[in-house]
Each structure stands twice: as structure tokens, then as C-alpha cells.
Amino acid sequence: MQKAACGAMGLMASFLVVIVLFAALPGCTGDAPRLTFWVGGAPQEVDYWEQLVVGFEKDTGIDVEIIRQPAATEQRKQGLVIALESGRPDPDVFLMDIIWISQFVQSDWLAPLDSCFGENSLHPRQFFPSVVDRVDRRNNRYYALPAFLDVGLLYYRGDLLQRHGFTGPPATWDALVEQALIVQAAERRENPGFNGFVWQGAQYEGLVCTFLEFIATHGGGISIDGTVNVSLPANEKALQFMQDLVRRHRVSPANTYTEMKEEEVRRGFQRGNALFERNWLYAWSLHQRPGSAVRGSIGLAPLPHLPGAETAATLGGWHLGISKTSDVKDQAWKLVEFLLSHDTQKKLLMKLGWYSCRRDVYQDPEVQSQVANIETLQQIVNHAVSRPDLPYYDHISRILQRYVNDCLAGKHSPREAITAMQQEIDRIEEIYGSP
Amino acid sequence: MNETRLQWILKALAALVLPAFCLLPFGWMLLVCFSRQPDFLLPQVDFAPTLQNLVDVLTDPSLHLMAYLRNSLLVSAVSAAAATFFAGLSAYSVTRLRFPGRILIPLGVLAFSMFPQISIVGYLFKLMASLDWINHHAALILPYTTLGLPLALWIMISHFAQIPVDLDKAALVDGASRLQILFRIIFPLAAPGALSTVLLVFIYSFNEFLFALMLTTDYTARTIPVGIAMFEGLHGQLPWGHVMAIAVVAILPVLLIAAVFQRRIIQGLVQGAVKG
Amino acid sequence: MAAPDQPPEKNEEARSAWLFNLPLVLLTAAFILIPVGGTLVTSLFRDVTYLPDAFVGLQNYLRLAADLHFWQSMRFTLLFVAVSVTLELIFGLVFALLLNEAMPGRGLLRVIVLVPWIIPIAVSARIWELIYNYEFGLFNFLLQHLDLTQQPVNWLGSSAGAFAAIVISDVWKTTPFMTIILLAGFSTIPQDLYRQAMVDGTHFLQRFIHVTLPLIRPVIVVALLFRTIDAVRIFDLIYVLTGGGPGGATTSLSLYSFQYYVSGDFGYGSCISLIVFLIAGLLAVSYIRLGKFSEVLR
Prior knowledge:
The complex is a heterotrimer.
Chain A: H1 2-24, E1 35-39, H2 43-60, E2 64-68, H3 73-85, E3 93-97, H4 101-106, H5 129-136, E4 137-138, E5 141-142, E6 145-157, H6 158-163, H7 173-188, E7 195-198, H8 205-217, H9 233-247, H10 262-270, E8 274-280, H11 283-287, E9 298-301, E10 313-322, H12 329-339, H13 342-352, H14 365-370, H15 374-381, E11 384-385, H16 393-408, H17 414-432
Parallel strand pairs in A: 1-2, 1-3, 7-8, 10-11
Antiparallel strand pairs in A: 3-10, 4-5, 6-8, 6-9, 6-10
Helix pairs in contact in A: 8-9, 8-16, 16-17
Chain B: H1 3-33, H2 52-59, H3 65-96, H4 104-113, H5 118-130, H6 138-160, H7 165-173, H8 178-189, H9 191-207, H10 210-215, H11 224-230, H12 240-275
Chain C: H1 8-42, E1 45-46, E2 54-55, H2 59-65, H3 68-100, H4 106-118, H5 121-131, H6 138-145, H7 159-187, H8 191-199, H9 204-232, H10 236-241, H11 253-261, H12 266-290, H13 293-297
Antiparallel strand pairs in C: 1-2
Helix pairs in contact in C: 1-12, 3-7, 3-9, 4-7, 7-9, 9-12, 11-12
């Protein structure tokens, strides 16, 4: 009987070993070092990245594998968090939304890039300091570099403004309301779906960007000096103004806080159904495309502000980073250099309408002659404001989204909303704010 | 209304309503898969049949559909085989041997099958990460095998219980070891049950989503359900033709299995649930 | 350890038994018990990727109690379970009755009924996603052509529409499971009872209520048990079909927990997932009590 027990044990052990071995063998190409570049976005955009990368492969002979991620920002982050937290050698190079960088750095997922900089190669001072110093540099080291820029700004229908005798886009919020009311009343006679001012008010991340711009242009803001503080009287005034746009002045549609996100806003404006639009840079080239109803009749400007305050633009955009656990860091850096080179950045600008953070791109004569709005853009970038740069930003964002949206829907007064916001943010800070 | 009339109506209903209810989405899937434009229901768009969607998804390198399929089949097959084997061992002991905790095994396993996967997957991710198994097949095979054990065990127990113990006794007298009895006598006699088990665990593993979502990061280990969930389109605006093409490819293996083995599958389900 | 005066056979049996059970025990311990235990422990910590771990005791749970999004998820999940399982039971019964009739092609029908259940949820979710498409989806097309609505229904963009969409898709997918189980239950009812009832001159419906239902009650209880617990854990369908939207309206508890995991917050995510565990456990216990499970076990 002893034999039986040994036999049983032996058989089972060997079976288990076989299973485990078989399963644990690197899944075919699993562990061979490869340079992977994780890119997400609309399929055409990823197609374009692939084309660019082919150029890189030809130049350097280094194979790059592009792994496509979904287009939705949240899903891209989820995929990256799982991969980076698991400590795997892939991905090597990836794009990050500007608001993730704080968490990614604090979670020790990004390789510092300082040792890669050189006089003749990529260097942070080639980029807009207001971006790289604020976002990419932490504890005096650089952990990322900007791939392209996005800022919030005001689009306006130049033709309509002219028709009604206005000389230019509004510089103050009061002027905007005044212009919007007049033009809206006139246009609605023929186009009942016309709105004075469309902006993103649905309950999602974009709402925080809009909110930030409204409060900053009212002289307020969100300070993270020591503790996160959002309860300023100026913020209350701004929130009241946002509510008024929808509920009192009625220059913004009722579905602002239920449906309006980037694409909804862009489409509305592009079909000719709005006078003013708050949106990101990306919308410009789409508005100017053949087939757009507003082609050639629009302009962009910094967002209006309260007299005595300054314009503001929420800083967005995507940055490139290298994983700390990458197994091909040298090659990864070469890819980053290539993607952020003058030529590639110029191509991205001319082809996709993605504005670069490299300063010398804007000095290129071809760019200067063909790309619109460069001076305005520089002006806007100088007034960029950032969302709270904290690793637990997503918690704060959720709180802000909810209360701002509720306020727009009329469920809270601005004071109630701001007070409640602050209380919840304080609670979050207690949990995530201290080591 | 008399009985036979009623019965006739019921049968007619069954013949019409049931297939319609069950197959309508598939019909739609096929239509869109083979149509050039997925929005052909719009008045201004025509329906034009084409094979291009299927060709595209099968050949596009950035989609890795073949890799997903390979991973799914591999992981499901190994998990099914392993779960059946290990459950068979346990079922044998539960139905034939006396030992303390004999009733605990099937009951415990039944209880564990009700554990929500979400309360397992978080810590499991950390475990797998520390073993460096994330994005390896092992990260999926071992959990799937484990999750398939409850169903496998109950099916095997109900089959083994039907095999008379006298057979064992006779073989023991002849000097056979327990293991030999299991493999030479019991398993062959319970082959239909074993087959049901393999099929059901295969189907369960093939369809599993949450673990695959959290424990894999790219196509080297990713399975089809996650692949199709993440798919956004190859080129152009509306990806639905391609999505449906992937769907067709994705369900072919399980459909084939269902068509060939439907009786075994149903038996397995019934035993797992009714007997339980 | 076996008592010293036990016959050597028993010892040997027990030892063999433990060897035979070793793989199952090891696997279960490693991939179910330890993870759940680990989740429990993690829920007592602040465990995020960007901070050192810190023991916080019940703080996560207290925070959960005040978390409005959590309660929204809870309401949605419970409502979904109630509506979905009820519908599945009803449809399952109806289909089982239909399939119970002897007719040509019954085998084929049983395969057809199996198909929705057998394919991956993720795949069927994408098919349904297209069916619910606002502009060119099948449902809106049918609804408008049959003149049932003026405007196309915004299935996935409104909370009511999204809820309906999820229930419909889930009922479609799991009714087959119910049908098969109930059908098997029907087959255990001896035909004599039916014949007797028919001779007594009872109506079909009366027969159903007074004869059939009581006899298949244990089967119904088991089927409900499995389906309810499955419904509580729902994740796949929602992740693919609505992503939890619009605005968190269809975020189930599992999805809510998942969202925290994949934002690097394992502490809070574990806490939420344990609530799902608790609910499943409570349901299981209630059903077992209700169905007088102990009788069935013997």
C-alpha cells in the first residue's frame, strides 16, 4: 500500500509540475526584450503614430511594437496602471495625460530622464518652460516630456460678431453675455437651436477643466499650498456665473450639464449652431476642415475674464514617459528623442493639428506661414493654469465634478456646493494627503 | 379551449418565439459582419454584402486576433483538463474513501463557488505581480482551473456515485492501487461525466472576463473577450463591421462545441445545479 | 491524526484521501482563500500605489458609509438583481413549459436555447451595444418602423434607457440557463400526477399552480440561488455595454470596486469588494434557509 501512496503522489506531483511549467513558460514572445510603445486614441491617430514609428525604425534599425490602447482616456489609464504596477518590462514608452503624471511619479513608475539629456540631444529647455517646469519636473528631476499641448480657449464666429457690429471677441464675461444674448436672439428667429455659448458641463473630467477656467478668470483658483483650498469667494462668484449662463441668461443650452462634452460642443459649433465655444485646441483644425459649416468664419481667442482678473486656460495635453522597469531604456530614449524631434513635432502639428511644446517648431517658416493662431496661442499658454497636481487628483476631480454639475442642475446654490466640496476634499486629504 | 388546441398553440409559439428570441442578436451580428456599412438601417445607406470585414480582422497585424484566439483556446483547454483531472481525484476520494472532512470538501467547494470574483481579483493581482506572472498564461490557467473545480467536482461526484463500489472492491482484492482503479475503471465508466466537465469548464474559462482584464496587459496572454471589449476600430469611423466580424470569429469555437456536444453540456449543467 | 486503535485500513484510506484532495485543496487555498483573506486584510489598510501602506482599521468602511457613489451603486445593483432575476424566472418558466412539449425539432430548439448562454458576455455585450445604437441600431429602427415611438430612444445615454438595456441583455443571456434547469425539474415530475389531474378535470393553469410548481420548488430555489448570486456580482456586461454610465447610473458594486483597483487604490477597492462578498453570503444563507436546503442535501 505504501507503493500506491508514493505512486499517487508522484503522478500528481509530476502532473502539477507539467501544468505549471507549461503555463509558466514565457507565453511565446512574452519575455524577449522588445520595445513597446503604448498609444491610444482614435484609430486614425494611432495609424499616424504607426507611420511615424516606421520612419524611426528605418532610421535607427530599432524595432518598435506599437500596442494600441482604447480611445477612452480612463481605459488607457487603467491599462497603464495595471501594467506598470505589475512591474513588467512592458510597456517601455507610453503617453500620459497630464493629470496622471503626479500619481505616476509618486508611484515610482517613471524612469527619470535627466541622465539622457545632452547638449546635442533632447533637452527640457527646448520646450515651453511653463509646461515642463510645472508638470514634468519634480524634485529637480524630469520624469516626462510633453508630446503635445492642449489648452482651453474661446472659439467665436467672426462673421456673426461682425454682422451685429461687434469689433472683436469679448475680453470680459459681461461682454460675452451681452454679445451672446443679442446674437442668439437674432439667430433664433431662423435657427431655433442656436445657442450663444456652448461649453462642457457634463459630469466628467472635462467639467473640472471648464470650472478651473471660470474660477481662475474670476480671480479665484484652487490652491494646493499645504492643503487643498477651493473655498474662495471668487470661486463662488464664478460658480454662480456658470449657473447663470444656463439658468438665468439662458445663453447656454439646458443639456449643458447633462450631455455636453468635447465632441457634443464641437459638433454644435461646427454645424453653425453657436456663437461662442469653449473647447480645446484640437477643435481648430476640425472646424476648418472642408465640409464644416463654419469654415473660414471663426477665430480663437483667450477666454474672457472679470475686469481686474486675467484670462486663463486649463493646461491639457499628453506627455511621453519611460517605464522604470523597462528592459530597453536606451532604445526607449531614442524613440522619445525621435518623437519629440523638431521634424516629428512639426509633422504632428501640420498633419494632425496637434500643437507642439517645442519652441523651435514655431520658428519654422513653413509652420509660420501655414499654421494659424501662433501668437494667440503663445499668449494663451502664458496664462495656463493647472488642475491640482496631486497623486490623488482623481478623487478630488470626482468631488468637483459632482458638485459643480449638481450646481449647474440647480440642486445646490454655489455657496452650498463650494462648502460641501471643501468638506469632502478635506476628508480625502486626511486619507491620502499624509504619508 | 380544449387541451390539444392549447398544446398546439404552445408548440407553435415555441417553434417561433424561442428561436426568434434567442437568435435575433446573432442574425443581426451576421448581417452587420457581412455588410459594407454597419449603419445600413439608415434610409440613406444601402446594404451591400462583403467579406472584407472578416478578412480585415483576420489579417490585420495590429489587432492580434489570432493571438487572442490562441490564448483563449490554450488557457481554456488546459484549465478544463486540469480541473477535470483534479476534480476527478477529489470526487473519487469523496465517493469511495472514508476520511474526516469528507463532506466538507464538496460543501466547501460549493460555498467557494459563490465567492464574488471581484473579492478575489484584487489581491490575486498582487500575488501574480509578485510572482512576475502578470501577462503570462499561468496567471489565467491556475485561477480558471480553481474556479472550475466546484462545478467539476459536483458533476464528477454525481457520476462516480452511480458507479457501484463493488467494482472497486473487486479490483482492490486483485491488488490494484487506488490510482489504478481510478484511471482504469472509474474514469472510463464516468467518461460522459468527465466530458461534460471538460466542456463546461472550457466554456467558463473561454468566456471569463474580469481576471483576463486585470491579469493580462497585451496580446501575449490576453484572451478574446477582453480583446473584443477593447476593440475600437481599425481604420475609418464606424468600427461595427469589424466588431461583428471579431464576434463571429470569437464565438465559432464555443458554437461548434455547443452544436456537437449539446447533450453533454445540458446534462452537465443539470447535474451541477439540480443535484446541487 | 487517526486514533491509535483505528484499523490500519482506515489510516491508509484517510492518507490516500488527503493525497487525492491535495491539488484541489492547494489550488483552492492559493487562488480563492488566500486572495479573499488578503482582500480582507487589505481593506483595513490605506493601500495606494503612491503612498506607503498604513493601517487604518475600519476607516475605509466608515468612508464607504458616507460615500454617495457607493450607495448609488448599491441601489442600482439591488434593483438590477430584483428585476433581472424575476424576469429570468418568468421567461425561464415559460420557455421550459414550451420546450416541455414533445415536438419535432425539440433537440434543435434546445441547442438554440443554449446559444445565448454559451457565448462570452463580452461578445454579446458588443452585439447589444450595436442593437441599442441611437442612430442605426436595430431596436430604434424597429421601434420607429412599428410606430411605437416618435423619437429614437436614447438607450445608452439616459439612465433609464441604460438600465433597461442592461436588464434586457442580461435576461436574454441567462434565461437559457434558467430554462434548462427548470426543464430538468419538470422532467422529474411523474406523468401520473398530470394524468390524474387531467382526469379530475382541472384547468391547465390550476394544474400548473397546484401540481407542477410545488414539485419543482427545490429546483426553482437552487436556480434562483445561483442566478441571484451571479447577478449580484455582475461586471462583464456593464463594463462593455455602458462602462457604468451615463454618469455612474449603471455602475454595479463590482464595477465600482474595479474602478478603484485600476486607479491604484487597493485599500478602498478591497473594502467595496468585501461588501459584494457580504451581500452574496447573506443571499446564500437566506436562500438556504428559505429552501430548507438541509432536506435536499440528504
